[in-house]
Every structure is written in structure tokens, then in C-alpha cells.
Write a structure and sequence with these properties.
This protein is mainly β. Helix content is 0%, strand content 56%.
Length: 130
Amino acid sequence: MRLGGGFWRNGGWELKGGLLSYALVGTSRLELYGKANVRVLSHFPFPHRDEPHETSYEFFLLHRPHSVERATVLREWAFPVSAIVIDADAIFRENVRGTMRYDATDREAIVRVSGLKQRFEERVDVSRLP
């Protein structure tokens, strides 16, 4: 978090994120991570009111072998502020969610992101992974 910008000195950036989902694949794991890049806009601090902000999102699909600490990024996706649905009843509130499911038959990771203006689902072939 880095705040302190703007006229009221309460604007700045927050980065939030972490592990959203994982699946065991043979002797390794597929992991889906998400990150929210929150730009807090400088504002007059009204009590009991959400602070104005703009948020973009990034999602990362990682492959992590059990015998190795490091993971490899298989795919990443970025969604700018303009791609996010803003709840009309609650200004500056988004409901973006990322999920991953592993299809063992087709050996695919299916990544879905909801809360976007356009439906997003991508299938990632992981058949070549050990």
C-alpha cells in the first residue's frame, strides 16, 4: 500500500491478492493467483462512505512441481478498469472473481473470471506437464 498522494493526501495505490484455487495434477499442482491493483482517488473523507477507487485485475496460472519450490507461470491475464462491471447500486464496487477447475479427462485447466463486461473462460492445455 502506498497512500499520501493528492490534495487530501489520502490517494495512492493498494495491491491485494493471493492464491484463489489449486488442483493436483499427477506429482504437481496447478495454482490460480489473483491480484487487484487498486488506485485510491484523492477524496474528502466523508464518514460511512466507501473511498473512491479504480481497480484493474490480473490473474496467473502457475505450475508447481512437488519436488521444486519455484513455480512456472503458464498463462496470465490482465483486465483493465474499463473491462470491469461496476455495481450501479454501490458506486466504486466491483465483484470480480476468478476460479479454476481441472478437467482430468482432457487434461485442461479451465479458468473463469466473472464480474467483467464480457464473459471470460479459457481452457489451458496442460497435457505436456509431468
